[in-house]
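hiii so um. not sure if this is the right channel but i have a protein structure encoded as tokens and i wanna go backwards to a sequence. like what aa goes where. can anyone help
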């Protein structure tokens, strides 16, 4: 079995995110629908923030109720209706602070 540790990172990230028009400029009804799907948004900037969080969580290849699938920009020419898709390109990730802690694991009692 591997060694498990808790790693805490404080990071600064730059991500270029391109959202379709309906997400980039949401109406009040759009915002209500986005919030209904579990996001906390009040403005267009909040929508971009939530998109960035999903990308960092690793959901770029998953179909999300609000954002669909996030694609790399080089895929634009390969996709039908690319104007309806979401794209991202991570420009930089800087680790500001970090800590690593041991995690105590219980031995199986058999």
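sure thing!! here u go:
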């Amino acid at each position: 079995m591997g060694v498990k540790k808790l790693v805490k990172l404080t990071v600064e990230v730059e991500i270029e995110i391109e959202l379709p028009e309906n997400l980039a400029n949401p109406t009040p009804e759009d915002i209500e629908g986005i919030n209904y799907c579990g996001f906390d948004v009040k403005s267009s900037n909040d929508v971009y923030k939530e998109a960035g969080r999903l990308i960092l969580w690793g959901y770029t290849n998953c179909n999300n109720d609000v954002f669909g699938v996030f694609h790399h920009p080089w895929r634009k020419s390969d996709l039908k209706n690319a104007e309806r898709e979401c794209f991202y390109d991570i420009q930089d990730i800087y680790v500001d602070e970090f800590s690593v802690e041991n995690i105590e694991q219980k031995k199986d009692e058999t």
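oh and The beta strands are 5-18, 70-71, 86-102.
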